[in-house]
Design goal:
The complex is a heterodimer of chains A (349) and B (557). Chain A is mainly alpha-helical. Chain A has a single domain, classed as ABC transporter involved in vitamin B12 uptake, BtuC (Orthogonal Bundle), CATH 1.10.3470. Chain A has 13 helices and 2 strands. In chain A, strands 1-2 form a two-stranded antiparallel ribbon. In chain A, helix 3 runs antiparallel to helix 4 and helix 8 crosses helix 10. Chain A starts with 14 loop residues before the first helix and ends with a helix. The relative contact order of chain A is 0.18. Chain B is an alpha/beta fold. Chain B folds into 4 domains: 45 residues, no CATH class; 151 residues, 3-Layer(aba) Sandwich (Rossmann fold); 175 residues, Rossmann fold; 75 residues, no CATH class. The chains are: A mainly alpha (349), B alpha/beta (557). At the A-B interface, helix 1, helix 8, helix 9 and helix 13 of A face helix 5, helix 7 and helix 8 of B.
Amino acid sequence: MSTILVPQSERPPAAAGTGARKLTERAFRVRESGIVVVLVVFVAVTTAVQHRFLNTTNIQFILTNTTVFALLALGETMVVISRNYDLSVGSVLGLSAYLSASLFGQHHGMPIVVVFLAGLGIGLACGMLNGIMVAAGRVPSLVVTLATLYIFRGIDILIVGGKEVVANSLPGSFLNIGKATVLGIPDLAIAIAVVIAIGAYYLRSFRSGRELYAMGSNPDAARLAGIPVGRRVFVAFAVSGAIAGVAGVLWAAQYGTIDSTAGTGYELQVVSAVVVGGVAIFGGSGSAVGAALGALLLNTISSALYVLGISPFWDQSIWGFLLILAITLDQLISVRLTAALRLKGGRRG
Amino acid sequence: MASGDVAGSQAGEDAGAAAEAPGATAGPAGALAGETSAAAEGAGAQPVLVLQHAAKSFAAVQALIDGSIELYPGEAHALVGENGAGKSTLVKILAGVYQPDAGSLLVDGREVTLHSPAAALAAGIAVIYQEPALFPDLTVAENMFIGRQPLSSGRRIDRRAMRAEAAAIFARLGVQLDPARIARGLSIADQQVVEIGKAISLRARVIVMDEPTAALSAAEVDRLFDVARTLRASGAAILFISHRLEEVFTLCQRVTVMRDGKQVLSQELAGLTAADLVRAMVGRELAERPAQEQGTAGEPLLSVERLTREGVFTDISFTVRAGEIVALAGLVGSGRSEVARAIFGIDRYDAGSVAVRGHKLRRGSPTGAMAAGVGFVPEDRRQQGLVMDMSVQQNVALASLARLSRAGLIRPSAERGLAADWAARLQIKYGRLKDPVSLLSGGNQQKVVLAKWLGRKPAVLIVDEPTRGIDIATKAEVHHLLVQLARDGVGVLMISSELPEVLRISDRILVMREGRLMAELAHAEASQEQIISAATGQAAPGSSREQLAGPAGPGAP
């Protein structure tokens, strides 16, 4: 039928149409630059009160601390965009951190690459288990990953018991992973930024990535459109698990001491970061970059409160407050945007 | 049937059998091409799609008995019929949503089996639904190309090419729509255009439009028709489903009429009148009408005055008296159920009033309506009428809990007593009263809903599609029950799409069309033709237009 397509000299962009496009694009920019603005204001205010906050060491500390969260947020973003949740990431991180780090104690001269691969494998296995149950078992992901949150943690506790991996059993090169810098910026932060950029690019520019958005935007229509929903969900969980596994190895390198509580409670912090970063809680929109910025913002706040000598109690309250703010903001933007787009459409909705 | 037989008997065949010939024997095609074009259709082309004798039933309900249709390239083909005639089932078979129990489907002369909507699309059949399901967060272009986006090097999506392709399709259709905007906020009409664009990009040769105009304004309908004509000119076949007969005559060349799950007429539209179509739609053999015991209508129980809800229904006034069954007829979507929901207080209304026995009801308060003696049996018993996981007994008692409780605690004995009493009176067939109501058949579930309200001894009972999807025997029982209630002095307001039912048991018939009351017919003077005519905006044969007060539809043929 394409033969009948009369060659068009130029597509006539409808005046109303381009207006709608600009409006949409502006709304998304507002959402992501909004985090940056909040971040800048927060840093400025904190620095005004306590000059120590904005020194190189502290910035490096915040960036290094953020890497694990930003990485977890990338996997979580893939899952949340498809209208699912992965609550097991903290437990996967803990399991991977202990098992991979203990490899150093078992075999002298264990190459660091192998340890990372081990962490990745452990995470992948956990993620695939989640994925199978959600995709094939048709169990809501919230339930599946809530269960595996406890199961993986339970396995961790069974293996670790009262033991722990201590820093002096780990090679110095491993412990220094987070400490090397280029031009004052931690190598690790740069590497993670690259990984997140790749992830964001994948979600934006590849069919399977876009299909995750489609599934989150309208699950029924996704099935009707012939999208392999089960396979996509499975892969999203597998990737999220693998990322949590790698994050576990990084966590081990950062802290040096690993017991059975490593990563406890991280899942909710990661989901918070993702939502604060503008990923819609019911899927369909948001970006990996936004989620990483969300993670950076939350970590900066924790650090600022510490520097200012404010009780860590406020830390959690402020996270919660930000979460509500983010969700309210998203809701507002979404409602206003829909209304504005209707008007721009020029026709009755 | 061997191909030789077809050739031999060709001359003497009647039109129906000849029409089947090309499809039935098209496998070893070639030699038959000439005969096909000589067939009674005279269209000079092979049909692009042939559905033959498709049947489909759901549990006990046979939704489609003999669904047959032939579509030729370059034609717009209308599919009309009453609600429940089997149109939707036929469409869903073409869409790959339902798999037929029997019958065959041929596309381009080859037999195909559509296991899924994706398979239907692959076969070149696209369905545009009344309310398309788009991805609100994705762009218009991406909605059209999801899963098939044009790629550039490295399997990356080529956004520029995708948008250009979408823009080219829109330009060809003559519509202004920006491919790069997100779908959220698009009007229904624009959403349909996106779906049509998707169909074109898939090179669909059969485009099924399932009541696309129901939610469109007049200008949007005009634009849709322009788009449809462009499609037709490019050789696509369009199957157009609409209740508005004037639209059928405006757009289509041929028509197929369905009634009671069967094709009853399929021919060129030229030479047919709206009255012909209406006759074909309703011309069923009526079940013998029972000797109507015209209830002596008593005092007015329910008075509805100038009830209006913006954009849904306008200026609805009527009265239901004691001992009377008043039917609210009209097409699905004409606003009947919405009026009922507003009366019962589930939905708000903007103007007008509802009174029971002269006392005005508070707006938007089902509790108030119940206290005034109104009962409401909703359309969708599974979702709205019953709590499926609760027992028969609990469901029956649900509307009478205050009466069955002492000091806030429900007395189980009273609950059981009430349930057993009504189950016996309505002859509900159940295992135990403690069984979940989901185990019962559709008809018996409906009786449970009725029992729930009858337990309250309502003054006014509103029933919405009381016999939908239930078997004939139970249907008769429900009818009997409603008549019995009226005889006992209850005022019954019945919404029904089944005209025989309406004609059988109601004393008066109100007909709605597009949110307005179009006609009020007394039992004695009412006929199926009159009701259908008022409901579709056509002048009934032998009735004056004055009787169908209200604004006439645009462009009546």
